Amino acid sequence: MTLREAQDTVDEWIKTIGVRYFNELTNMAMLSEEVGEVARIIARRYGEQSEKESDKDKDLGDEMADVLWVLICLANQTGVDLTAAFQKNMEKKTSRDASRHLENEKLRQG
Q1: How far out from the chain centre does Cα 53 lie?
Q2: Helix (H, G, I), strand (E, B), or coil: what is residue 33?
Q3: What letter does residue 51 receive in the DSSP assignment?
Q4: Cβ neighbours for 51, distance < 8 A, ≥ 6 positions apart
Q5: How many H helices and E strands in the chain?
Q6: Residue of 43, 67, 66, 41 lying closest to 56 (CA atoms)
Q7: Which backbone phi and psi does 32 adopt, to 5 degrees?
């Protein structure tokens, strides 16, 4: 599925099943909440915090998909074409960071 297809799929779901989009501020709060859930899993599963029994069955991929879902909702609501935005962002990173990471001593130590 492409980003465009994902945006269209979410839009169709919202219009047929979800009734309407939550407003942008609500979706921004929901995005923060979903990112927090991803952070909790990462911190406990891959970081130094111990993982609680209740968190061991949490599906990281599903939580990341929740983040993507809300991000797509916000893109749809604000008229952002994620394909174009992502392509432009990759070009910026490639141009800006062409040698930056290769010359970073900290990255060579790992």
Answers
A1: 25
A2: helix
A3: P
A4: 44, 45
A5: 5, 0
A6: 41
A7: -60, -40
DSSP 59: -
Work out the end-to-end distance of the chain between its first and last CA atoms, rounded to an integer number of angstroms.
Answer: 34
Nearest Cα neighbor of 61 from 83, 41, 82 is: 41
Q: How far apart are CA 7 and CA 39, in angstroms?
A: 24
CA angle 9, 11, 16 (to 5 degrees): 95
d(CA 80, CA 104): 33
Joined tokens for residue 48: 């130094």
Q: Give the up-direction half-sphere exposure of residue 68: CA atoms within 13 A in the CB hemisphere.
A: 14
Two tokens at 20?
A: 């309407």
pTM of this structure: 0.88
Is the distance from CB of 70 to CB of 30 less than 8 angstroms?
yes
Q: How many residues does the chain have?
A: 110
Query: Is the dihedral angle over the CA atoms 14, 18, 21, 22 positive or is it negative?
Result: negative
pLDDT tens digits along 65-98: 999 999 999 999 999 999 999 999 999 999 998 8
